[in-house]
């Protein structure tokens, strides 16, 4: 499958938005304590965010060159990670968000997907939105460093049956929760008040399938979605739509 150059077609610039008026620098706002204060701890019944897991680090002069899905860029951001779990399940999901500097923030949030059997595209996905003033997020779907359902060892339970809870996370639930938490976190962190946060999804191949899983189930979740080459036919394995 060949994925088109998607990011250049995304209508970020078509929306009129206003920067948050904030005199604080990136270094001043990018702290663990500020992140903890902004976490939407009551976002949904059954979800518990682990505040002790929060990390926040300033990254300067991140450089992107020759990328497939975005133009060359140099930008600063706040790298935030934390985990959450579901009541009654033995899972730990890690979320990563890259936040633009306060004076670059454009009231935008972007979720990004993976490729192959991977649930995210790592730094390649995270770098797609920040140059446009968007908080950008990825989820590991409880797969950890494996980042891949079939290689993670979580596809089957010890009794040889399919781990359906993990399949559902990979299939659609993890990306829904990534956006649910990410949009609320963005709003809290940048103190946007009544201002609308414009939200988007971008993904290709497995990321395209993930995108379809969201627009099919949660029609109001994003203001716009760019979905390329969705990998929806799975031989020998369950179809995760």
Describe the model.
The longest helix has 26 residues, at 164-189. Mean pLDDT is 87; it is low at 5-22. The chain has helices spanning 26-29, 32-38, 122-126, 164-189, 206-217; strands at 47-64, 73-86, 93-100, 108-112, 134-139, 198-204, 224-228. It is of the alpha/beta class. A hairpin with a 6-residue loop joins strand 2 (73-86) and strand 3. The protein has one domain: Rossmann fold, CATH 3.40.50. Helix 2 packs across helix 4. The protein has five helices and seven strands. The protein has a seven-stranded mixed sheet with strand order 1-2-3-5-4-6-7.
Record the SSE blueprint.
Layout: H1 26-29, H2 32-38, E1 47-64, E2 73-86, E3 93-100, E4 108-112, H3 122-126, E5 134-139, H4 164-189, E6 198-204, H5 206-217, E7 224-228
Parallel strand pairs: 4-5, 4-6, 6-7
Antiparallel strand pairs: 1-2, 2-3, 3-5
Helix pairs in contact: 2-4
Instruction: Give average pLDDT, whole number.
Output: 87
Q: Got a strand count?
A: 7
How many structurally independent domains? Answer: 1
Low-confidence stretches: 5-22
Query: Structural class of the secondary elements?
Result: alpha/beta
Q: Radius of gyration, Cα only, in angstroms?
A: 17 Å
Number of helices: 5
* Basic shape: globular
**What's the end-to-end separation, in Å?**
18 Å
Strand percentage lies at: 25-35%
CATH fold title? Rossmann fold
Largest sheet: 7 strands, mixed
CATH class: Alpha Beta
In which range does the helix fraction lie?
Answer: 10-25%
CATH architecture: 3-Layer(aba) Sandwich
Summarize the helix and strand pattern as letters.
Answer: HHEEEEHEHEHE
**Strand adjacency order, main sheet:** 1-2-3-5-4-6-7
């Amino acid at each position: 499958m060949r994925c088109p150059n998607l990011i250049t077609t995304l209508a970020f610039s078509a929306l009129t938005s206003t920067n948050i008026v904030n005199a604080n620098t990136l270094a001043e706002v990018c702290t663990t304590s500020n992140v903890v204060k902004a976490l939407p701890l009551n976002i949904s019944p059954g979800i518990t965010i682990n505040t002790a897991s929060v990390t926040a680090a300033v990254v300067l002069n991140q450089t992107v060159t020759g990328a497939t899905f975005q133009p060359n860029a140099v930008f600063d951001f706040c790298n935030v990670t934390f985990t959450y779990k579901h009541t009654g399940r033995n899972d730990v999901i890690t979320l990563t968000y890259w936040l633009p500097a306060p004076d670059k923030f454009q009231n935008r949030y972007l979720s990004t997907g993976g490729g192959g059997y991977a649930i995210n595209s790592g730094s390649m996905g995270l770098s797609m939105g920040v140059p446009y003033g968007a908080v950008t997020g990825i989820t590991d779907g409880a797969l950890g460093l494996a980042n891949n359902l079939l290689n993670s060892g979580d596809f089957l339970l010890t009794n040889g049956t399919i781990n359906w809870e993990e399949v559902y996370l990979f299939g659609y639930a993890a990306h829904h929760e990534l956006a649910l938490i990410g949009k609320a976190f963005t709003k809290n962190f940048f103190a946007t008040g009544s201002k609308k946060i414009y939200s988007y999804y971008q993904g290709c191949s497995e990321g395209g399938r993930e995108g379809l899983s969201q627009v099919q189930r949660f029609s109001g979740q994003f203001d716009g979605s760019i979905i390329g080459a969705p990998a929806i036919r799975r031989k020998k394995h369950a179809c995760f739509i």
